Amino acid sequence: MRYIIAVFIGACSYGVLSTIVKLAYGDGATTSLVTVGQFLIGWFVLFVSFLFTKRKEVIGKKDKVKLMLAGIPTGLVGVFYYLSLVTLEASLSIILLFQFVWIGILFEFLFYRRTPDKVTTFSVLILMFGTTLASGVMKGEDLGGNLFGVIYGLLAAVSFALFILTNATVMPKLPPIQRSYYMVTGSMLVVVMIFSPFLIRGVDPNVITSFGQYGILLGLFGVVIPPILFAYGMPKIGSALGSILGSAELPVAVLLSMVILEEHVTVIQWCGVAIIIFGIVYPNIQNRSG
Question: Which of 83, 151, 236, 258 would suit a FRET pair with 26, their CA atoms being 20 to 30 Å apart?
Fold first, then answer.
């Protein structure tokens, strides 16, 4: 049971991020400050944890590089996801991010020639229908007016699908904190490289001061807690149940955007969220029962 609880808490932690980012934007923080701040703070916490942890394995330089490269997609998820939040509501950005499910299936076909079965194909159709309802198209939202936000949201989904693809194969048996440290190092480096030109131009000191609380929360909920909990629980419960529990991120994000950010989420959109979760859960239940 503790492994199930760990993965569930990790998924809920990811669901908190969009609301924190929106609050930080409201206080004047920029995307570059939010993203770099999150990964630097998260990396520092993992670095300290890694220094004091007793459970370590000796690995070579090539393995360290592999882990850092595997962590790059995670950094790109943060970059694109937070850029989408500049122009889109948090409830819509998280729905776009969740398109990683069918994108991951597409990648498996392209890279490994794994043809999706009937259950998977049906699941993808359910996801597309749920996304149509949840996106707000039915209530007349002009998504074309926020085209770049939609594109960034989909790029975040592509990056997350790549992360899942690489994360499953790169040294999965390494101790959780050690593995998370090297992967987040790769994420942090790519984020700093992307946003350093914007930070060099200068940031308002008052904004940096007010951002401190948000940066700590983003670092903990986005970089430290989920990877460690996933690394702890996923190998024990399996990817099928893990995917089901991971879908908890979606309703948490939508609920917080409605309660804290006061975004208007219609009954139709909630129905879409429920359908998306069903589309994720359905094939995993079928596989477990089969």
Answer: 151
CA gap 114, 9 in Å, rounded: 31
148 residue type, one letter: F
Count of C-beta atoms within a 10 Å radius of residue 169 = 9
Interval 188-238: pLDDT, tens: 999 999 988 776 665 556 556 656 778 888 888 988 888 778 877 877 776
Phi-psi group of 28: left, alpha or beta (phi > 0 → left; psi -120 to 50 → alpha; rest → beta): left
1: Cβ–Cβ under 8 A, 6 or more apart, which residues? none
Residue with token string 């500049």: 86
Give dist(CA 271, CA 150) in Å, integer. 21
pLDDT one-digit tens code per residue, 193-204:
998 877 666 555
Q: Is residue 75 a contact partner of residue 190, using CB atoms and an 8 Å limit?
A: yes
The structure tokens 């944890």 sit at 49
The alpha carbon torsion through 5, 10, 16, 17 (nearest 10 deg) reads 180
Consecutive H or E run containing 78: helix 61-87
Rounded distance between C-alpha atoms, residue 42 and residue 142, angstroms: 36
Q: Give CA–CA dist 177/56, Å, rounded.
A: 9
Mean of per-residue pLDDT scores for the chain: 82
User: What span, in angstroms and rounded, lies between the C-alpha atoms of 127 and 193?
Assistant: 35
Burial environment of residue 285 by CB neighbours within 10 A (0 to 12, 13 to 18, 19 or more)? middle
Task: Look up residue 74 and give its amino acid.
Answer: T
This prediction has a pTM of: 0.83
CB-based contact 72:132 (threshold 8 Å): no
Check: CB of residue 66 under 8 Å from CB of residue 170: yes
Q: Which of 38, 23, 68 is nearest to 226 (CA)?
A: 38
Packing angle between helix 225-246 and helix 267-289, nearest 10 degrees? 90
